[in-house]
Specification:
Layout lengths: L1 H16 L8 H14 L5 H27 L5 H22 L4
């Protein structure tokens, strides 16, 4: 449940902060890509397509890491959760650093 909450929170926050880019829900990006292409407004499509390719690369890399550790009999949950935490903190720091300075 905690991972589902985290995914939903990051997705919502990312959608608002990144001007319409879903960070945790790749299906939402598919819908927005299709809507932009059907409507003729191709301005945000490139960023969404890049996000999609990075998502696929991230899933493939994570799965290969997981399989390699499982073959050696090592735990996969702790390093993957630590990596997720690291990326979430990095995203937060980047958002605070690049955010508006009022």
């Amino acid at each position: 449940m905690l991972l589902a909450f985290t995914g939903g929170f990051v997705d919502t926050l990312g959608f608002v902060a990144l001007f319409g880019l879903f960070t945790a829900h790749v299906t939402g990006n598919f819908v927005l890509i299709g809507a932009a292409m059907a409507g003729g407004a191709h301005s945000g499509v490139i960023g969404k397509l890049l996000a999609l390719s990075v998502f696929v690369l991230g899933v493939a890399t994570t799965r290969m890491f997981q399989l390699r550790r499982e073959r050696r009999g090592l735990d996969t949950a702790v390093p993957l959760m630590a990596t997720q935490l690291l990326f979430l903190v990095a995203f937060m720091v980047a958002g605070v650093w690049a955010g508006p300075s009022s």
